[in-house]
Amino acid sequence: MDTVLLKTDHLTHAFGSEQSGIFDICLTIARDDFIVLAGKNGCGKTTLIRHFNGLLMPDRGRVLLDGQDIQKNLTVARKKVGMVFQDPDTQIIADTVFDETAFGPENLNMGREAINAGVINALKLLGLYHLRDRNPATLSGGEKRRLAIAGILVMAPDLIIFDEPFANLDYPSIVSLVRVCRTLHRSGHAIVMTTHDVAPVIMLATKMVVMDKGRIKEQGDPISLAPCLESYGVKNPFTPMAQAWAL
Amino acid sequence: MTLFSYHPGDTLWHTLDVRCKCLLMCLLSLAVLKTGLPGNIICLCVLMGILKMLGVGPVKLVTQLKCFLLLLTLIFFCRWAVTPGHPMVTLHGFSLTRQGFASAGLVSLRFLVVMLLGLILTVTTRSMEIKAAVQWFFKPVPFIPEKRVAVMVGLALKFMPLILDNAREVTHAVNARCGNLRKNPVRRLVNLAWPLLKKTFQSADDLSLAMQARCYSENRTDARFFSNGKEGWVVGLTFIFCAGIVLMG
Amino acid sequence: MNGTPMDVSIKPIIYSALFIALISIGAMIAVPVGPVPIVLQNMFVLLAGLILPPAWAAGCVAVYLLMGFAGLPVFAGGTSGIGKVFGPTGGYLLSYLPAAFLTAVISGRAAKSLVRDCGAAIAGMAVMYMFGVPWLKWVLAVSWGKALAAGMYPFVPGAVLKIIAAVIIARKLRPLIRF
């Protein structure tokens, strides 16, 4: 099997101005990649990842998934590329944890038995099975985030995209989320994670991509790239905060 | 969480098929509207008994339904005061009649019973199940896109707590800057509603993206209904009960 | 992040659901103005009419009423059921349907002028009281004078405020909304 999962080809989406948008992005994601997409707010990270499952269409260039242009079959693209959004509250749809997880497969019109099996599996994997009858609104921030992951994991995606997963999470939730990411990566999912705080995942990532002003500025080994992060407005995870303030 | 939310449990009322529960509710509502005072009192006692079994005692009912009971009292006195007949009490040349008392009592009792019926349904049934039942009932009706309606209902239920939270936040944020001192009522209304709506519509946009990312389509897997096999008995007994109170009234 | 042509089918559904939710909880959001606190429920009905196309505006109110009939706790104070509709305030509830539709029809599709929006909101509010007051009279079995005194006069200042606020908000909100 080909190791290249997703490839973008000179991707440009301008939003009608030179200030925002993304320009000329060429990026390759392999099946075993864990990519950290770093950059400050407004650098185009979110715009870029929303092209990966066809939520946004490029002005120029293409996105290839398994060698196929994703515009050919959007449903397949959205099934294979799962996306966990920044704010879990806005993406939770149903009123129990179980139904919420079943939403995706129900959209694909899968059989009820297959759905139930898949949902139970995904909930157990993320440690949410005991909460299956709870209303998602009553869950904690970390649990909501894991529920959002369960909701896309049940569709058996090849690539999982996280958009700022650590925003608004307390320390224990961050730790448990990083563990989940590691488990998912080890079980054969490619992962792309946008963040402006690379510290929690820098040891797990296989590749770091740094964006600024809508363009890819650096890409390569995360640890060797860490020192140059600060020139693009991202904190170097190896400088303590106290030292940053002293400067 | 208010009284009108789902209380988990596994009683007969919880496990009954939802469609059956909806039917029973309609049947009982009609019977209550047809029957007289004794039938309503019996019905009220039965419903209170069921609610007690479900863990909603009379004390909890009264405290949680204060506003509703107040409205009922208002209706009661209104009707009592305007119905002509034999005077029962006379105050300052204004008489309250015996007939008025009976008809006012009947009307307010009916409201109370129908309300309690609705309460039993909401306490024992998840809103998703009610939604699925509504969808099922609308399947044979032409010109109604029942799946779209079901999605709208589900989303609306999801938005409600979100909007309430947002409303609280916005109120606090406005008052923290002394917005409550504004004299112009239109400005106050707009100051509250505009940020609330702006925020809510933005989260609606996010939601539409999230739903597309999860392949939303109207051709979805149908909901499944669970039944405990006692529907026949319960429907039969309810029929007899309804017939009984209607004949009695 | 908008702008894909894909949004077309799902956006009106989500916006309608949003208005259903707003109308449902509108009774719980009160703004303390004067002696009678203003409740936002009927303002949201007017807003639905001003913002959604007629079919969707009527559809969203219809689904709201349907949810209430079916026993979901969406009527004022978290109540529901057919009994509520036959209660004294049922006329107002039912009037939301023609009110939202009429408002949407009058406010029109393209080129929304201020005068037209105001006319639409006033017509919508008038429809609510045209249904609500006779219903109140019938249920409470009181005279017209008493029904008007209980069901309309105390609310007229609030209604005027809400019409103005609804028009202002609708005009601010429209640029944010893309179907």
Sheet of most strands of chain C: 2 strands, antiparallel
Radius of gyration of chain B: 23 Å
Radius of gyration of chain C: 16 Å
Low-confidence stretches of chain B: none
Order of helices and strands of chain C: HEEHHHHHHH
Element order of chain B: H for helix, E for strand: HHHHHEEHHHHH
Q: Total number of β-strand segments of chain C?
A: 2
Number of domains of chain B: 2
Layout of helices and strands, plus pairs?
The complex is a heterotrimer of chains A (247), B (249) and C (179).
Chain A: E1 4-13, E2 22-30, E3 34-38, H1 45-52, E4 60-65, E5 68-69, H2 74-80, E6 81-84, H3 88-91, H4 97-107, H5 112-125, H6 141-153, E7 159-163, H7 171-186, E8 190-195, E9 207-212, E10 215-220, H8 222-225, H9 241-246
Parallel strand pairs in A: 3-8, 3-9, 6-7, 7-8
Antiparallel strand pairs in A: 1-2, 1-4, 4-5, 9-10
Helix pairs in contact in A: 4-5, 4-6, 5-6, 6-7
Chain B: H1 12-15, H2 18-34, H3 37-53, H4 58-64, H5 66-82, E1 87-91, E2 94-97, H6 98-124, H7 127-138, H8 146-176, H9 185-213, H10 231-248
Antiparallel strand pairs in B: 1-2
Chain C: H1 11-26, E1 30-31, E2 38-39, H2 41-51, H3 54-70, H4 82-85, H5 90-107, H6 114-140, H7 144-151, H8 156-173
Antiparallel strand pairs in C: 1-2
Helix pairs in contact in C: 1-2, 1-3, 2-3, 2-5, 2-6, 2-8, 3-5, 5-6, 6-7, 6-8
Write up this protein:
The complex is a heterotrimer of chains A (247), B (249) and C (179). With 247 residues, chain A is α/β, with parallel strands linked by helices. In chain A, 34% of the residues lie in helices and 24% in strands. In chain A, the strands form 2 sheets. Chain A has a 6-stranded mixed beta sheet with strand order 6-7-8-3-9-10, with helices on both faces. Chain A has a 4-stranded antiparallel beta sheet with strand order 2-1-4-5, covered by helices on one side. In chain A, helix 4 crosses helix 5 (112-125), helix 4 runs parallel beside helix 6 and helix 6 packs parallel to helix 7 (171-186). The longest helix of chain A is centred in the last third of the chain and has 16 residues, at 171-186. Chain A is globular. A two-stranded antiparallel ribbon of chain B has the order 1-2. Chain B is flat, with a radius of gyration of 23 Å. With 249 residues, chain B is mainly alpha-helical. Chain B folds into 2 domains: 12-126 and 229-248, no CATH class; 146-213, no CATH class. Chain B contains 10 helices and 2 strands; from the N terminus they run H-H-H-H-H-E-E-H-H-H-H-H. Chain C has a two-stranded antiparallel ribbon. In chain C, a hairpin with a 6-residue loop joins strand 1 (30-31) and strand 2. Mean pLDDT of chain C is 80; it is low at 1-8. The A-B interface holds A 50, 53, 55, 75, 78-79, 82-83, 85, 87, 89-96, 99, 103-112, 115, 133, 137, 151-152, 155 and B 8, 126-128, 154-155, 157-158, 161-162, 203, 206-207, 209-217, 219-222, 224. Chain B: This is Energy-coupling factor transporter transmembrane protein EcfT.
